[in-house]
Write a structure and sequence with these properties.
Elements lengths: L5 E7 L6 H6 L7 E6 L6 H8 L5 E5 L5 H15 L4 E4 L11 H9 L5 E5 L4 H4 L4 H18 L12 E4 H4 L13 H11 L4 E5 L13 H26 L4 H30 L5 H27 L11
Parallel strand pairs: 1-2, 1-4, 2-3, 5-7
Antiparallel strand pairs: 4-6, 5-6
Helix pairs in contact: 6-9, 8-9, 10-11
Length: about 325
Protein backbone atom coordinates (compact mmCIF):
# COMPACT_ATOMS: atom_id res chain seq x y z
CA UNK A 1 0.00 0.00 0.00
CA UNK A 2 1.39 3.38 -1.02
CA UNK A 3 1.89 5.70 1.93
CA UNK A 4 0.14 9.06 1.52
CA UNK A 5 2.20 12.20 1.19
CA UNK A 6 1.58 14.37 4.24
CA UNK A 7 2.05 18.15 4.22
CA UNK A 8 1.85 20.65 7.07
CA UNK A 9 0.79 24.24 6.42
CA UNK A 10 1.73 26.85 9.04
CA UNK A 11 0.31 30.37 8.57
CA UNK A 12 2.99 32.70 9.83
CA UNK A 13 2.03 36.06 11.32
CA UNK A 14 3.64 37.39 14.51
CA UNK A 15 4.78 33.92 15.59
CA UNK A 16 8.53 34.36 15.26
CA UNK A 17 9.14 33.42 18.90
CA UNK A 18 7.44 30.02 18.58
CA UNK A 19 7.52 28.84 14.98
CA UNK A 20 10.90 27.09 15.00
CA UNK A 21 9.79 25.01 17.97
CA UNK A 22 6.60 24.03 16.14
CA UNK A 23 8.59 22.95 13.07
CA UNK A 24 11.04 21.01 15.24
CA UNK A 25 8.16 19.05 16.80
CA UNK A 26 6.88 17.74 13.45
CA UNK A 27 7.36 13.97 13.33
CA UNK A 28 8.78 11.73 10.57
CA UNK A 29 5.30 11.04 9.19
CA UNK A 30 5.35 14.55 7.70
CA UNK A 31 6.90 14.81 4.25
CA UNK A 32 6.89 18.55 3.69
CA UNK A 33 6.22 21.68 5.75
CA UNK A 34 4.95 24.91 4.19
CA UNK A 35 5.46 28.09 6.19
CA UNK A 36 3.28 30.85 4.71
CA UNK A 37 4.50 34.34 5.61
CA UNK A 38 1.33 36.41 5.51
CA UNK A 39 3.14 39.77 5.27
CA UNK A 40 4.35 39.23 8.81
CA UNK A 41 5.71 42.44 10.40
CA UNK A 42 8.34 40.31 12.16
CA UNK A 43 9.52 38.83 8.84
CA UNK A 44 8.96 35.37 10.30
CA UNK A 45 9.15 33.71 6.89
CA UNK A 46 12.59 35.08 6.24
CA UNK A 47 13.55 34.18 9.80
CA UNK A 48 12.59 30.55 9.18
CA UNK A 49 14.39 30.48 5.84
CA UNK A 50 17.61 31.72 7.48
CA UNK A 51 17.49 29.72 10.71
CA UNK A 52 15.68 26.44 10.01
CA UNK A 53 17.78 23.53 8.76
CA UNK A 54 14.89 21.06 8.32
CA UNK A 55 15.02 20.00 4.64
CA UNK A 56 11.25 19.50 4.59
CA UNK A 57 10.54 23.21 5.03
CA UNK A 58 9.33 25.40 2.17
CA UNK A 59 8.69 29.09 2.81
CA UNK A 60 5.95 30.88 0.87
CA UNK A 61 5.29 34.62 0.89
CA UNK A 62 1.87 36.19 0.37
CA UNK A 63 2.03 39.42 -1.62
CA UNK A 64 -0.47 40.99 0.79
CA UNK A 65 -1.93 40.11 4.17
CA UNK A 66 -4.87 37.75 3.59
CA UNK A 67 -5.54 36.53 7.13
CA UNK A 68 -5.20 33.06 8.56
CA UNK A 69 -7.62 31.62 6.01
CA UNK A 70 -5.90 33.18 3.05
CA UNK A 71 -2.50 31.95 4.24
CA UNK A 72 -3.87 28.46 4.83
CA UNK A 73 -5.52 28.27 1.42
CA UNK A 74 -2.29 29.42 -0.23
CA UNK A 75 -0.40 26.67 1.57
CA UNK A 76 -3.02 24.00 0.80
CA UNK A 77 -3.10 24.96 -2.88
CA UNK A 78 0.69 24.74 -3.15
CA UNK A 79 0.77 21.44 -1.25
CA UNK A 80 -1.90 19.91 -3.50
CA UNK A 81 -0.05 21.18 -6.56
CA UNK A 82 3.11 19.49 -5.28
CA UNK A 83 1.33 16.15 -4.92
CA UNK A 84 0.33 16.05 -1.25
CA UNK A 85 -2.43 13.59 -0.39
CA UNK A 86 -3.35 15.03 3.01
CA UNK A 87 -2.79 18.59 4.26
CA UNK A 88 -2.73 19.59 7.91
CA UNK A 89 -3.02 23.16 9.12
CA UNK A 90 -1.53 24.08 12.48
CA UNK A 91 -0.77 27.46 13.98
CA UNK A 92 2.75 28.67 14.54
CA UNK A 93 2.16 29.97 18.07
CA UNK A 94 2.77 26.67 19.84
CA UNK A 95 -0.84 26.04 20.95
CA UNK A 96 -1.19 23.00 18.68
CA UNK A 97 1.01 19.97 19.32
CA UNK A 98 2.39 18.57 16.01
CA UNK A 99 2.76 15.20 17.74
CA UNK A 100 -1.03 14.82 17.40
CA UNK A 101 -0.81 14.76 13.60
CA UNK A 102 -1.05 10.93 13.37
CA UNK A 103 -4.42 11.13 15.16
CA UNK A 104 -5.67 13.76 12.72
CA UNK A 105 -4.66 11.95 9.55
CA UNK A 106 -5.62 8.40 10.63
CA UNK A 107 -9.39 8.75 9.90
CA UNK A 108 -8.59 10.18 6.45
CA UNK A 109 -6.01 7.51 5.65
CA UNK A 110 -8.41 4.78 6.79
CA UNK A 111 -11.22 6.20 4.68
CA UNK A 112 -13.49 7.07 7.61
CA UNK A 113 -13.43 10.84 7.06
CA UNK A 114 -12.65 13.52 4.51
CA UNK A 115 -11.79 16.22 7.05
CA UNK A 116 -10.78 16.17 10.69
CA UNK A 117 -10.60 19.01 13.19
CA UNK A 118 -9.58 19.48 16.78
CA UNK A 119 -11.99 19.53 19.70
CA UNK A 120 -10.72 21.08 22.95
CA UNK A 121 -13.98 20.32 24.76
CA UNK A 122 -13.90 16.52 24.56
CA UNK A 123 -12.26 15.85 27.94
CA UNK A 124 -13.88 17.57 30.96
CA UNK A 125 -10.51 17.87 32.69
CA UNK A 126 -9.12 19.88 29.79
CA UNK A 127 -12.12 22.21 29.73
CA UNK A 128 -11.38 23.29 33.31
CA UNK A 129 -7.98 24.64 32.21
CA UNK A 130 -9.45 26.77 29.42
CA UNK A 131 -9.81 30.53 29.99
CA UNK A 132 -13.43 31.38 30.86
CA UNK A 133 -13.86 33.84 27.99
CA UNK A 134 -12.72 31.25 25.47
CA UNK A 135 -14.95 28.61 27.04
CA UNK A 136 -18.14 30.67 26.89
CA UNK A 137 -17.37 32.14 23.50
CA UNK A 138 -16.66 28.79 21.89
CA UNK A 139 -19.78 27.22 23.41
CA UNK A 140 -21.96 29.93 21.84
CA UNK A 141 -20.13 29.78 18.51
CA UNK A 142 -20.41 25.99 18.45
CA UNK A 143 -24.21 26.12 18.64
CA UNK A 144 -24.42 28.75 15.92
CA UNK A 145 -22.03 26.70 13.80
CA UNK A 146 -24.20 23.60 14.10
CA UNK A 147 -27.09 25.58 12.63
CA UNK A 148 -25.11 27.23 9.87
CA UNK A 149 -22.91 24.30 8.77
CA UNK A 150 -25.20 21.31 9.34
CA UNK A 151 -22.53 19.33 11.22
CA UNK A 152 -24.50 18.73 14.40
CA UNK A 153 -22.04 16.20 15.84
CA UNK A 154 -18.94 18.42 15.83
CA UNK A 155 -17.93 20.98 18.41
CA UNK A 156 -15.35 23.76 18.77
CA UNK A 157 -15.87 25.14 15.23
CA UNK A 158 -13.17 27.82 15.47
CA UNK A 159 -10.48 25.23 16.22
CA UNK A 160 -7.74 25.77 13.66
CA UNK A 161 -6.07 22.38 14.00
CA UNK A 162 -7.41 20.57 10.95
CA UNK A 163 -6.59 18.07 8.23
CA UNK A 164 -8.17 17.53 4.82
CA UNK A 165 -7.90 15.10 1.93
CA UNK A 166 -6.37 16.74 -1.13
CA UNK A 167 -9.05 15.11 -3.31
CA UNK A 168 -11.80 16.72 -1.26
CA UNK A 169 -9.98 20.06 -1.13
CA UNK A 170 -9.94 20.11 -4.94
CA UNK A 171 -13.77 20.19 -4.92
CA UNK A 172 -14.08 23.26 -2.72
CA UNK A 173 -14.68 26.74 -4.21
CA UNK A 174 -11.45 28.19 -2.81
CA UNK A 175 -12.09 31.69 -4.08
CA UNK A 176 -15.33 31.86 -2.04
CA UNK A 177 -13.98 30.60 1.30
CA UNK A 178 -13.64 33.25 4.01
CA UNK A 179 -10.00 34.19 4.47
CA UNK A 180 -9.93 35.64 7.98
CA UNK A 181 -11.27 34.55 11.35
CA UNK A 182 -14.43 32.97 9.90
CA UNK A 183 -12.26 30.62 7.83
CA UNK A 184 -12.67 27.43 9.91
CA UNK A 185 -16.45 27.78 10.14
CA UNK A 186 -16.81 28.63 6.46
CA UNK A 187 -14.76 25.54 5.61
CA UNK A 188 -17.34 23.42 7.44
CA UNK A 189 -20.18 25.10 5.54
CA UNK A 190 -18.44 24.49 2.19
CA UNK A 191 -17.72 20.87 3.13
CA UNK A 192 -21.38 20.28 3.94
CA UNK A 193 -22.45 21.54 0.52
CA UNK A 194 -20.39 18.73 -1.09
CA UNK A 195 -21.49 16.18 1.57
CA UNK A 196 -18.03 15.55 3.04
CA UNK A 197 -17.63 13.61 6.29
CA UNK A 198 -16.12 15.56 9.20
CA UNK A 199 -14.80 14.06 12.44
CA UNK A 200 -13.65 15.68 15.68
CA UNK A 201 -10.28 14.75 17.17
CA UNK A 202 -9.87 15.28 20.94
CA UNK A 203 -6.93 17.54 21.75
CA UNK A 204 -5.50 19.78 24.43
CA UNK A 205 -4.59 23.37 23.62
CA UNK A 206 -1.57 24.92 25.31
CA UNK A 207 -2.02 28.53 26.40
CA UNK A 208 1.27 30.30 26.97
CA UNK A 209 2.60 33.79 26.34
CA UNK A 210 1.31 33.99 22.77
CA UNK A 211 -0.95 36.91 21.86
CA UNK A 212 -4.23 36.27 20.08
CA UNK A 213 -4.99 38.55 17.14
CA UNK A 214 -8.71 37.94 17.49
CA UNK A 215 -10.56 40.97 18.82
CA UNK A 216 -13.95 39.65 19.93
CA UNK A 217 -15.70 43.04 19.93
CA UNK A 218 -14.61 43.61 16.33
CA UNK A 219 -15.37 40.15 14.97
CA UNK A 220 -18.63 39.30 16.81
CA UNK A 221 -20.81 41.13 14.29
CA UNK A 222 -18.97 39.55 11.37
CA UNK A 223 -19.40 36.10 12.89
CA UNK A 224 -23.14 36.66 13.36
CA UNK A 225 -23.54 37.86 9.77
CA UNK A 226 -21.38 34.99 8.52
CA UNK A 227 -23.44 32.37 10.36
CA UNK A 228 -26.71 33.84 9.12
CA UNK A 229 -25.45 33.92 5.54
CA UNK A 230 -24.13 30.34 5.72
CA UNK A 231 -27.34 29.06 7.30
CA UNK A 232 -29.49 30.70 4.61
CA UNK A 233 -27.32 29.34 1.80
CA UNK A 234 -27.17 25.84 3.26
CA UNK A 235 -30.94 25.62 3.66
CA UNK A 236 -31.52 26.93 0.14
CA UNK A 237 -28.91 24.62 -1.43
CA UNK A 238 -29.89 21.43 0.43
CA UNK A 239 -33.67 21.77 0.72
CA UNK A 240 -34.79 23.81 -2.27
CA UNK A 241 -32.17 23.92 -5.03
CA UNK A 242 -30.84 20.34 -4.93
CA UNK A 243 -33.86 18.67 -3.37
CA UNK A 244 -37.41 19.38 -2.29
CA UNK A 245 -39.03 16.89 0.04
CA UNK A 246 -41.05 16.50 3.20
CA UNK A 247 -38.47 18.43 5.24
CA UNK A 248 -38.73 21.35 2.82
CA UNK A 249 -42.52 21.40 3.21
CA UNK A 250 -42.20 21.24 7.00
CA UNK A 251 -39.81 24.18 7.02
CA UNK A 252 -41.95 26.40 4.80
CA UNK A 253 -45.19 25.43 6.52
CA UNK A 254 -43.72 25.93 9.97
CA UNK A 255 -42.42 29.40 9.18
CA UNK A 256 -45.69 30.46 7.55
CA UNK A 257 -47.79 29.06 10.39
CA UNK A 258 -45.79 30.83 13.08
CA UNK A 259 -45.74 34.02 11.04
CA UNK A 260 -49.52 33.91 10.62
CA UNK A 261 -50.16 33.13 14.28
CA UNK A 262 -47.88 35.89 15.58
CA UNK A 263 -49.17 38.48 13.07
CA UNK A 264 -52.85 37.65 13.48
CA UNK A 265 -52.60 37.47 17.26
CA UNK A 266 -50.65 40.71 17.51
CA UNK A 267 -53.09 42.62 15.29
CA UNK A 268 -56.14 41.30 17.15
CA UNK A 269 -54.62 42.06 20.53
CA UNK A 270 -53.83 45.64 19.45
CA UNK A 271 -57.28 46.26 18.00
CA UNK A 272 -59.08 44.86 21.05
CA UNK A 273 -56.78 46.68 23.48
CA UNK A 274 -57.40 49.95 21.63
CA UNK A 275 -61.15 49.35 21.86
CA UNK A 276 -60.94 48.46 25.54
CA UNK A 277 -62.47 44.98 25.12
CA UNK A 278 -61.18 41.52 25.95
CA UNK A 279 -59.92 39.35 23.12
CA UNK A 280 -62.39 36.48 22.51
CA UNK A 281 -61.20 32.96 23.37
CA UNK A 282 -61.82 31.84 19.80
CA UNK A 283 -59.52 34.54 18.45
CA UNK A 284 -56.83 33.51 20.91
CA UNK A 285 -57.11 29.91 19.75
CA UNK A 286 -56.93 30.92 16.08
CA UNK A 287 -53.65 32.71 16.83
CA UNK A 288 -52.22 30.07 19.17
CA UNK A 289 -52.91 26.90 17.19
CA UNK A 290 -50.80 27.86 14.11
CA UNK A 291 -47.91 28.84 16.40
CA UNK A 292 -48.00 25.45 18.17
CA UNK A 293 -48.29 23.54 14.90
CA UNK A 294 -45.55 25.69 13.36
CA UNK A 295 -43.13 24.88 16.17
CA UNK A 296 -43.93 21.18 15.82
CA UNK A 297 -43.15 21.31 12.10
CA UNK A 298 -39.91 23.20 12.69
CA UNK A 299 -38.87 20.64 15.31
CA UNK A 300 -39.58 17.86 12.82
CA UNK A 301 -37.47 19.68 10.22
CA UNK A 302 -34.67 20.12 12.75
CA UNK A 303 -34.74 16.40 13.54
CA UNK A 304 -34.46 15.58 9.84
CA UNK A 305 -31.61 18.06 9.41
CA UNK A 306 -29.67 16.52 12.30
CA UNK A 307 -30.17 12.99 10.96
CA UNK A 308 -28.99 13.98 7.48
CA UNK A 309 -25.42 14.81 8.54
CA UNK A 310 -23.05 13.21 5.96
CA UNK A 311 -21.80 9.77 7.04
CA UNK A 312 -20.33 8.30 3.85
CA UNK A 313 -16.83 9.68 3.15
CA UNK A 314 -16.68 11.60 -0.10
CA UNK A 315 -13.13 10.57 -1.02
CA UNK A 316 -14.24 6.95 -1.36
CA UNK A 317 -16.72 7.97 -4.04
CA UNK A 318 -14.32 10.07 -6.09
Amino acid sequence: MKMPKIAIVIPSYKVRAHILGVIHSAGPEVDVIYVVDDQCPESSGQYVAENCTDPRVRVLFNEQNEGVGGATLAGFSRAAQDGADIMIKIDGDGQMDPRLIPKFIAPIVNGRADYTKGNRFYNPEDVLTMPTVRLLGNAALSFMSKLSTGYWHVFDPTNGYLAISAKVFSLLPRQKIAKRYFFETDMLFRLNTIRAVVLDVPMVAVYGDETSGLKIHRELGRFMVGHLRSFSKRIFYNYFLRDFGVASVQLVSGVLAIGFGVSFGGIQWYLNAASGVDTPAGTVMIATLPIILGFQMLLSFLGYDISSTPVEPLQGRL
